[in-house]
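> forwarded from #structure-qc
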């Protein structure tokens, strides 16, 4: 049987929802963003709740194997506490909610403080869920293990009468493989690029800097492909990743066939200067862009990025100057393609964008009228 893995990007304006479906049926969801009014017929944003629930119902599942929140900004968690079954409180366990077998969060999500008037905010609810699972010792992986988190956890475990090292197996460090997946068993593995311990040390947490970043490697009958799944990192974070990865001689983990570009096509993922007409990437960010293999895809999970005079003055992402840079480097890697979620297949009626990985190449599928990916429109054949 031909091995096929899929990655689907959902159009949610400036926001992220990415679903990975492995050949063996296991599912990973990176972030969740349900925009207000997305359920209305005239909305151009995907009704993520409806689409994901329908897909799970079709295969008689009520869960994702993994839900990974890259960080706690609203555009990566919006609507999640109305959609998922949460273990820490009965009020989040109503009929029809989707279960999370394993929750993946950066340490920053567990550590974040919240003011009294923020207690009903979704990031606080998810923080409580992460803390509950961590203390219960199951159904969670926490990425990075800064001293501040260790101090909080050890005090909480002491109150429970448990050994302070009894949760060590739930923490995952940068530079390692995430537990629970392997090329042999799943045809996929996830190498952790970020966060580092210093990203949330000293109590000063910057969500984007402390976000989850993975190299997701797929094996398709002996042919391997790489998907770079990036949270809202900025250029300095990417430069650090390139530097550290090269230092440890893991250059292959910088390769990519599919790149979820950071921060909704913000120039800040490339440089600290936007540029008048085009952003010039910092040196190591440029190196990372050039690690794309021929006929690769770069995807901006963002609003449309029009090339018109007013766009060059935009303060908020997406930035046309960044788009110009990504398009330039897409050409340099020989046949690469830059795509925007809210522009595919067109800007009037965007649909979920699905990529298939198989031994013969990486294929972008065309969305049918129902929104399902069905017809091959472009391919990146893999030689050898």
């Amino acid at each position: 049987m031909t091995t096929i893995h899929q990655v689907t990007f959902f159009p949610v304006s400036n926001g992220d929802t990415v679903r990975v479906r492995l050949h063996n049926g296991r599912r990973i969801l990176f972030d969740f963003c349900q925009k207000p009014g997305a359920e209305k017929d005239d909305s151009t944003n995907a009704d993520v709740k409806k689409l994901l629930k329908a897909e799970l119902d079709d295969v008689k599942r009520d869960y994702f194997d993994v839900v990974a929140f890259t960080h706690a900004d609203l555009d990566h968690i919006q609507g999640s506490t109305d959609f998922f079954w949460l273990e820490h409180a009965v009020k989040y366990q109503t009929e029809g909610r989707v279960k999370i077998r394993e929750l993946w969060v950066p340490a920053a999500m567990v550590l974040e403080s919240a003011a009294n008037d923020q207690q009903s905010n979704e990031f606080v609810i998810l923080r409580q869920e992460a803390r509950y699972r961590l203390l219960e010792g199951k159904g969670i992986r926490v990425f990075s293990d800064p001293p501040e988190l260790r101090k909080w956890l050890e005090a909480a475990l002491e109150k429970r009468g448990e050994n302070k090292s009894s949760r060590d197996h739930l923490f995952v460090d940068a530079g390692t493989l995430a537990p629970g997946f392997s090329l042999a068993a799943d045809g996929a593995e996830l190498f952790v690029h970020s966060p580092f311990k210093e990203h949330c040390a000293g109590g000063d947490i910057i969500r984007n800097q402390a976000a989850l970043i993975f190299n997701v490697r797929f094996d398709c009958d002996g042919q391997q492909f790489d998907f770079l799944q990036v949270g809202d990192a900025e250029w300095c974070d990417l430069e650090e990743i390139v530097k550290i990865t090269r230092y440890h001689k893991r250059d292959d983990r910088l390769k990519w066939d599919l790149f979820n570009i950071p921060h909704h096509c913000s120039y800040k993922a490339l440089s600290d200067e936007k540029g008048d007409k085009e952003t010039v990437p910092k040196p190591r960010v440029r190196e990372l862009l050039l690690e794309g293999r021929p006929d690769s895809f770069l995807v901006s999970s963002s609003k449309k990025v029009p090339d018109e005079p007013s766009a060059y003055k935009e303060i908020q992402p997406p930035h046309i100057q960044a788009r110009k840079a990504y398009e330039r480097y897409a050409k340099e890697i020989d046949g690469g393609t830059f795509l925007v979620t809210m522009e595919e297949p067109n800007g009037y009626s965007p649909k979920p964008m699905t990529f298939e990985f198989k031994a013969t190449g990486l294929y972008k599928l065309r969305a049918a009228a129902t929104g399902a990916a069905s017809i091959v429109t472009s391919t990146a054949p893999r030689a050898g």
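QC bot note: Residues 70 and 212 are 5 Å apart (CA to CA). Confidence is low (pLDDT under 50) at residues 369-373.
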